[in-house]
Design a protein that fits this description.
- The radius of gyration is 22 Å and the shape is globular.
- Helix 3 packs parallel to helix 6 and helix 4 crosses helix 6.
- A hairpin with a 5-residue loop joins strand 6 and strand 7.
- The strands form three sheets. It has an eight-stranded mixed β-sheet, sandwiched between helices. A four-stranded antiparallel β-sheet has the order 2-1-4-5.
- By secondary structure, the protein is of the alpha/beta class.
- It binds adenosine-5'-triphosphate and nickel (II) ion (NI).
- Nickel (II) ion binds next to helix 1.
């Protein structure tokens, strides 16, 4: 297999607050290969945005990346080593802040946020901003950059780009503004685009159109994406591979079809049951019971045990790591749930525990054991 474009290993990012240390990202590892769209999915507060800002080294105080490694195209975005006195210090080869600012952010790794008004200046025309961005980042003269800007606007499906070039952000609809940001992200021909819930605020039809456009552009330019969302239907629509996050951890990792049809983690199942799915008409959507606990003092054992319909005593005690659960010859599919044989910690003999799943004891569900689908 070729080297990944981006590789994240055991990344830990924490916020040091008055109430305690928030373990926002708590030891996640994942890869992004060239030309693929990798999903980062989970409920609000799971740590998705902190994970993506860590990749760009944009975590602000009181937050800090405290451990792990981030490699991008063979270069070190983040990495620590032990110093002479046993202290942890940045590795020599770690990219400097200037390199991050001048070369990586926006150019090699672009980011698209949920709210386009955060990235677009209301007092300048849309075309002017796009042109200037292209001029600065691609060393083109103003006329060439303008031509390129108009081409990009056309590329992302903005009708009559020549005339809309001179309009201001407020004259664009939410969906059109989001298209402009996608044009801006693509303009520097980055290797990787990080999209943090860019379609969440849009209505479903507009969202669908944008996802379709992104899929087409992705194929054309072969750009890699990290797509952050809490919505499994978005995952189904555009992702190749998926990482499911819960309370700072990745609890399941698989190709998109395997995640949907051979789900290994009860949290992933709960997420799937709580959302409308394009491939399935369900009689009733079931919201996930309870709320995600605080990331300051995460529950012992499996962090999901307090909400899990399949939780047993052992789940309160054993903190599961992410293990390979794929059958031979299948694409890698990892999961962090001790109900699987790969863990062998006595789940089968462990008594069920009371959880927040409504009915008190989850007897009916535990009867059927692990793999019932
Ligand atoms: N500046 C901050 N100070 C303290 N805690 C923070 C800060 N930023 C994020 N957190 C905490 O880090 C955790 C992860 O937050 P994050 O924004 O990454 O979640 P998310 O998965 O992106 O959620 P959403 O879907 O709502 O965007 C949360 O517990 C959040 O409260
Ligand atoms: Ni977020």
């Amino acid at each position: 297999m070729t080297e990944p474009l981006l590789s994240v290993r055991d990344l830990k990012t924490q916020f040091f607050t008055e109430d305690g240390t928030v373990r926002a990202v708590d030891g996640i590892s994942f890869d992004v290969y060239e030309g693929e769209i990798v999903g980062l999915v989970g409920e609000s507060g799971a740590g998705k945005s902190v994970a993506t800002s860590s990749i760009l080294r944009l975590v602000d105080s009181p937050g800090e990346i405290v451990g792990g490694e981030i490699e991008f195209k063979g270069e070190t975005i983040f990495g620590l080593e032990e110093g002479d006195a046993g202290e942890l210090r940045p590795r020599d080869e770690m990219l400097t802040e200037t390199q991050m600012r001048k070369r990586i952010r926006g150019r090699e790794i672009a980011i698209i946020f949920q709210d386009p008004m955060e990235s677009l200046n209301p007092v300048f025309t849309v075309g002017g901003q796009l042109r200037e961005f292209i001029e600065i980042n691609r060393d083109l003269d103003p006329a060439e950059a303008k031509e390129e800007a108009i081409d990009m606007l056309r590329e992302v499906g903005i009708p009559a780009p020549e005339s809309r070039y001179d309009e201001y952000p407020h004259q664009f609809s939410g969906g059109m503004r989001q298209r402009v940001l996608i044009a801006m992200a693509l303009a520097c021909q980055p290797d990787l685009i990080i999209a943090d819930e860019p379609t969440t605020a849009l209505d479903v039809t507009v969202e669908g159109e944008i996802l379709e456009m992104v899929t087409a552009l992705q194929e054309k330019y072969d750009t890699s994406f990290i797509w952050v969302t809490h919505d499994m239907s978005v995952v189904a629509e555009i992702c190749d591979r998926v990482n499911v996050m819960y309370l700072g951890e990745i609890i399941e990792q698989a190709e998109v079809d395997d995640l949907f049809y051979d789900t290994k983690h009860p949290y992933t199942s709960a997420l799937l049951d709580s959302m409308p799915r394009p491939d399935k008409t369900v009689d009733e959507l079931r919201p996930i019971e309870g709320v995600m606990p605080e990331a300051i003092n995460p529950p012992s054992g499996c962090r999901f045990h307090s909400r899990c319909p399949e939780a047993r005593e052992v789940c309160r005690e054993v903190h599961p790591d992410l293990r390979d659960l794929s059958d031979e010859g299948e694409a890698t599919h990892t999961g962090a749930c001790v109900k699987h044989d790969a863990f062998d910690v006595g789940y089968g003999d462990s008594p069920a525990i009371e959880t927040e799943t409504g009915s008190g004891f989850s007897a009916g569900l535990t009867e059927t054991g692990g793999e019932a689908e």
